[in-house]
Amino acid sequence: MCTARPGWATVSFRQPLYKKQMQNIKVNLIDILDINEAKQTIRVEPLATMGQITAFLNPLGWTLPVLPELDDLTVGGLIMGVGIETSSHNFGLFQHCCVAYEVVLADGSVVTCSKDENSDLFYALPWSYGTLGFLVSATIQIIPAKKYLKMEYIPVHSKKDMVKVFADETNKGEENMFVEGLVYSENSAVIMLGNMTDTADPEKINPIGYFWKPWFFKHVEEFLESGSAVEYIPLRHYYHRHSRSIFWEIQDIIPFGNHPVFRYLCGWTVPPKISLLKLTQGEATKQLYEKYQIIQDMLVPMKDLGDALKVFHDEIEMYPLWLCPFKLFNLPGMIHPQDASDEMYVDIGAYGAPKTKQYEAKRTTRKLEAYVSRVNGFQMLYADTYMTREEFYDMFDHTLYNKMRDELPFCKQAFPEVYDKINKKVRS
């Protein structure tokens, strides 16, 4: 079994061919169910989106500790897959902000799980990609929100400084609520530090989310020339700063989209929904994307960031790259640090057309996968993976996951393994 949500409706560019061979179950649960301000939690259904949640929570003075930036990302996708944001160096991944799940199992029974109730299932669900049961609600921690985000832009002009400043600012913990890096070349980047505030210098307020504003990554790039600066961004504008340009993939779809004339006259028409782009793609376009585009997020230990950037430069030489730090907690489940202690990791996001002459989708991805596995990192599974089953088991700890597959009634008969849903060769 699998959900009946069509592949074109998801944010991932992957084609879920497995849906054609499985029983499709309708799980059309899109609502925010309730908010408990005393307990500082919100309960939502799996298809509630990040845009929907910020529109609901921010006016009430609340937000999620980890709120991934694209409007259409769903709670279910961020739990069963993975979710990350620039506050993750303090709060961990999206799954680490969840306090309870409600799941329908293969036998039709409804189970609630948390760290204190059915804890094995609670820790096994993240990264399980709907192969243990159907998520029907999640209870998520909320924290107080403020009106603005004070953003400090720090340009750096060498890889050494890039890695040092990024790591140093990340390790300051709560002193920087948000830390992000946009890498524009092998030796240039802008490191961004953000903190929420209710007061702002009126002359430095920049509502970056309006349609006539420059794409955020282009706005940030200007600080490489102008130098360090501070501005104040309305909080919801900050959260969805990469939505209008789908990070920077929109420049390959609408190359003239950041021109001031286009923004003022037609900026309200973009971005096109990712679901619309997928729905209207012909087979030839899909093949071109698979052949000439890379969409990958690789999670590597912070201590290996310098080497990882070199590997990405040698293999794809594509910029910008997205850097997002996160704390990987030593908890049970598919991913955890190698040692028995929390460890700081960084997500390197690569989205676009590689510039290296030797780029070939499968060969290059295999090289990146091998490097990431070698440094005890992880590959986000929303994108194409070419790992063998043995390599996949080496990268992800299946101990608790397999225990749940054995113990949950009819689980193995009803659901495939994660690998059988995400591996490109198996899917085809």
Tally of helical runs:
19
Mean pLDDT: 90
The biggest sheet, with number of strands, parallel, antiparallel or mixed sense and barrel status, is:
8 strands, antiparallel
Structural class: alpha+beta
End-to-end distance? 18 Å
Task: State the total count of DSSP E strands.
Answer: 17
Subcellular location: Endoplasmic reticulum membrane; Golgi apparatus membrane
Keywords: Cholesterol metabolism, Endoplasmic reticulum, FAD, Flavoprotein, Golgi apparatus, Lipid biosynthesis, Lipid metabolism, Membrane, NADP, Oxidoreductase, Signal, Steroid metabolism, Sterol metabolism, Transmembrane, Transmembrane helix
Cofactor: FAD
Protein name: Delta(24)-sterol reductase
